[in-house]
Amino acid sequence: MEPQQFIEKYLEPTDAGSENPWQTRTQPCPFLNGNLCTVYEDRPADCSRYPYLYEAHFTSRTLAMLERVPTCPIVYEVVEDLKKSLGFSRGQRRT
Q1: Phi and psi for 87 in degrees, rounded to 5?
Q2: Among residues 54, 77, 75, 81, which one has the least CA distance to residue 63?
């Protein structure tokens, strides 16, 4: 597929001022099949870095990460692993 065809079929412009000029037209990503990426070996750099866990200022992006739990399997798994490591349990109150 030619780059322009790909853009027309799958992408739309992001908000002005964004680091990345494109985003997928649909959520979740059209290349997800269940929880698996069907273009994993050829995924864009933004996808390979997502959810940006190892980039600076992670703590300032925590709320934005939580908003992505329903749409991104990797974010969901990271949050679930974090809950396990912290001993989080539904209904349990920490004092």
Answers
A1: 75, 25
A2: 75
Specify the DSSP class assigned to residue 30: T
What is the dihedral sign for C-alpha 6, 54, 79, 85? positive
pTM of the model: 0.55
Amino acid identity at 7: I
Strands of the chain, DSSP E: 11-13, 22-24, 32-33, 36-37
Q: Where are the domains of the chain?
A: 1-49, 52-89
pLDDT per residue as tens digits for the range 7-61: 899 999 887 666 678 888 888 889 989 888 899 898 887 788 777 767 777 677 7
Q: What is the pLDDT of residues 54-89, one digit of tens each?
A: 777 767 777 777 877 887 777 888 888 988 998 887
